[in-house]
Design the sequence.
């Protein structure tokens, strides 16, 4: 028995990959994330935004990207550490007040364990 691909498998694979990744744009810097990384922390703002009801509450731009205006790229990169390791690696030149404000905005705990 011979099977022949019609190209639908490739299209499905591309669509599946697009659904599994999310592009967040922070001050013209693009961050490509796996959706499951954010969903690991559903109690946070990003975990909630991209959860089961993502289509109802979250609207991307024409390219399917999501804009974040509340922080700088450096602060956002530090915040993303929480999603991957459970801790926030604060840049040496970062203002701790800005880190705390970002944690409050994204609903991430700000304490000695993070």
Sequence:
């Amino acid at each position: 028995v011979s099977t022949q691909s019609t190209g639908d498998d490739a299209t499905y694979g591309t669509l599946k990959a697009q659904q599994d990744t999310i592009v967040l744009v922070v001050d013209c810097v693009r961050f490509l994330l796996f959706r499951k990384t954010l969903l690991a922390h559903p109690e946070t703002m990003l975990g909630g935004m991209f959860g089961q009801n993502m289509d109802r509450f979250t609207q991307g731009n024409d390219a399917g990207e999501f804009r974040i205006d509340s922080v700088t790229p450096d602060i956002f990169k530090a915040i993303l550490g929480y999603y991957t390791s459970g801790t926030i690696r604060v840049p040496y030149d970062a203002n701790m007040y800005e880190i705390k404000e970002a944690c409050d905005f994204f609903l991430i705990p700000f304490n000695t364990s993070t």
